[in-house]
Amino acid sequence: MKTTLRATALTGTLAISLMGMGCATEKPAQTPETSASKAEGTPGPAAAEKGLRLYVFECGDIEVSDDAIFHANLNTPGVKRHLIGSCYLIVHPKGTMAWDTGLPDELATKPEGIKAMKDLFTLRVKKTVASQYQAIGVAPDSVKFLGISHMHQDHRGNVGLFPHSTLLVQKEEYESVLGPDSLKFGNDPAAYPTLKANPVKKLEGDFDVFGDGSVVIKRALGHTPGHQALFLKLPKTGNILLSGDLVHFTDNWKARGVPAWNFDKERTIKTMQETDQFLQANHATLWIQHDYEQSATLRHAPGFYE
Ligand SMILES: [Zn+2]
Predict the structure, then answer these.
(1) Which of 137, 252, 278, 299 is the most buried (most CB within 10 A)?
(2) C-alpha distances in angstroms, 67 versus 121, 232, 249, 253?
(3) 30 pLDDT higher than 70
(4) pTM for the model
(5) How far apart are CA 84 and CA 111, in angstroms?
(6) Distance of CA 100 from the midpoint of ligand 1 (Å)
(7) Which residues, at least 6 apart from 79, have a Cβ–Cβ distance to it below 8 Å?
(8) Domain 7-13+49-296 is of which CATH architecture?
(9) DSSP state of 299
(10) 1 C-alpha to ligand 1 centroid (Å)
């Protein structure tokens, strides 16, 4: 989803506190190797020495007063919709990768939430991302890669926690959020002041993050200029695709609904069709990151998937 909570709402405090929080989380980097000796048999990244792990975090709560805005082809005006924000940590024997970072942790200080998108959305943060990383013994500033599905605020809200991670984004997305025309794309670099200093690998297609086919970024354009999804081959769980905002909830997926604010409607529909074929060919399950009902069925951190 897109929110209009931008620099105007939180500029100063957001910039300062995000950087401050980055510092607050500084402590000796805890890698899978270093945590193994003391964390045997407990939740944490230790067992990733043996294989792949996926941690699921709750990274925002979103109430929508009219879900018709997500799919004009369905006649559902005035229907309320509850969405969740999701973000993830992948622990691979060769390193760690964050996938999306949720709404800004600062919203946790506003339990009543804030309004966005002409009051259509009420945004809340009930658990901070920082606290959920802390609970599994991983310092965000030790994470090797930072994959962002796209740069809407509910996905990049805590990028400041990951100042050392190599950003993995499609070239078009990077240009639209940090390039000279970012404001024309509705993006304000002042809202994510640390990001330009991150090392970056600009992608121009799919990317096999660890070189073994188990963690693959999939180019999935349409929602934004350089939107992407994440394919995971988990040995015990099976193959899954983390949706980014290719779709927002299950009915939306079935109806091939395209939100009014998508960057390219035709490309979105084409990507949905290609994704459907990909899911079938790879026997993969689509995990829709904003789907509240689906999220409620998942095991959240400190538990994990293997
Ligand atoms: Zn979103």
Answers:
(1) 252
(2) 10, 29, 10, 13
(3) no
(4) 0.84
(5) 15
(6) 10
(7) 66, 67, 68
(8) 4-Layer Sandwich (3.60)
(9) P
(10) 3
